[in-house]
Specification:
This protein has 136 residues and is mainly α. Helix content is 79%, strand content 0%. The mean pLDDT is 82.
Length: 136
């Protein structure tokens, strides 16, 4: 039952994020990606806070709040307008080499942290704190 709630929550969050980002009409693909990330994080936080304040902080209530958000955002956004994305990575790297180097460094750091969190076991008396510190 837990995996079903997880799948439903991820799908609803995706729909709500996509619809809300479409309502905000970002200027280009990068703005859209950043906007979607911020909208997703803010939406999850808002759903959790509302459920917590109402005293019903459990998976069903959070899922219901995400469903309401997704339905409202999808209704306001209207039918989807799909465009084929144009990725010009080589041109972006040539245009902004320092930014490309910083992005590559950030991706490498994120991949390393994911590897550390996945591979290294907790190895201290207070395993939760130690593992979270190393993985973070």
């Amino acid at each position: 039952m837990g995996w079903l709630l997880l799948v439903a929550g991820v799908l609803l969050l995706g729909l709500a994020t996509w619809s809300t980002t479409a309502l905000l009409r970002p200027a280009d693909a990068l703005d859209g990606a950043v906007t979607a990330g911020v909208v997703a994080a803010a939406g999850v936080a808002a759903c959790m806070l509302v459920a917590g304040v109402a005293g019903v902080l459990h998976p069903g209530a959070v899922l219901a709040l995400e469903a309401a958000w997704a339905a409202a955002a999808a209704a306001l956004a209207g039918p989807p307008r799909l465009r084929r994305p144009r990725l010009r990575i080589a041109a972006a790297i040539r245009g902004e080499p320092w930014a490309a180097a910083l992005v590559a460094l950030a991706v490498h750091a994120l991949a390393w942290q994911a590897h550390v969190a996945h591979v290294l076991p907790p190895n201290a008396n207070n395993t939760k704190t130690n593992h979270q510190t190393i993985a973070a």
